[in-house]
Amino acid sequence: MELIREIVEIYDNYEFKTEVLVASCRHPIHIVEAARMGADICTCPPAVIDQLFNHPLTEHRAREVPEGLGESTGGEGVALGSDG
């Protein structure tokens, strides 16, 4: 993960137009760390994606969200991974 941090830092320092792709992440924490470092894209096996969505804390927090909170209220929202 230190290599990813260095790559992101180098490209940011020189303002090169590029995207940093972290390939074949084998654990959900690597995806989180890469995102926090500024990586743009991560690839990983489907089992790792399942682990991200089916974490016990995710399940616990999902039960705490008030009813109607996640509903759309007029077209504004956030799309992860988009340029807009």
List keywords for this structure.
84 residues; mainly alpha; two-stranded parallel ribbon; 4 helices; 5% strand; disordered C terminus
- Order of strands across the widest beta sheet? 1-2
Terminal residue distance: 28 Å
- Percent strand equals under 5%
What share of the residues lie within helices? 40-55%
Structure notes:
This protein is mostly helical and about 80 residues long. It has a domain at about 1-10 and about 20-60. About 50% of the residues lie in helices and about 5% in strands. The protein contains 4 helices and 2 strands, in the order αβαβαα. It has helices spanning about 1-15, 30-35, 45-55, 55-65, and strands at about 20, 40. It has a two-stranded parallel sheet with strand order 1-2. α2 (about 30-35) links the parallel β1 (about 20) and β2. The radius of gyration is 16 Å and the shape is elongated.
Q: What's the gist of this structure?
A:
The protein is mainly α and 84 residues long.
Produce the secondary structure layout:
Elements lengths: L1 H13 L6 E2 L5 H10 L3 E2 L3 H8 L2 H9 L20
